[in-house]
Design brief:
129 residues; 4-stranded antiparallel sheet; mainly beta
């Protein structure tokens, strides 16, 4: 069982930056996807960014050029650097993971919540205009 814990949420002004962290319990897997998702009140959970074990990233159109997902494998931590933030970025942000058996090719991971089965508790981000 993979355990994920997000941190780093809080208030930020529009145009500002924030970095979220996702600490993962150690797991052994040759192929995996990890992703960031968000859910605003009254809205469905949506994908933000993903990364696979090769380091290939994938971003939702709404955050391309502003957000960056990156891993620190030595710390078992996944980061989401959020720059040029907008009020519409306000949401609870979740980290998620999907582990696959065996070896798979370098295919970008989807940013679809239904593709992930390990989830953190979330961290809230508010953006003031």
């Amino acid at each position: 069982q993979v355990q994920l814990m997000e941190s780093g949420g809080g208030p930020v002004q529009a145009g500002g930056s924030l970095r979220l962290s996702c600490a993962a319990s150690r797991f052994t897997a040759n192929t995996y996807c990890m992703g960031w998702f968000r859910q605003a009140p009254g809205k469905e959970r949506e994908g933000v960014a993903s990364i696979n074990n090769y380091g290939t990233t994938n971003y939702a159109d709404s955050v391309k050029g502003r957000f960056t997902v990156s891993p620190d494998n030595a710390k078992n931590t996944l980061y989401l650097q959020m720059n040029s933030m907008k009020p519409e970025d306000a949401a609870t942000y979740y980290c998620a993971a999907k582990i696959f058996p065996g070896f798979l090719g370098n295919v970008a991971c989807p940013v679809l919540p239904g593709n992930y089965n390990h989830w953190g508790q979330g961290t809230q981000v508010t953006v003031s205009s």
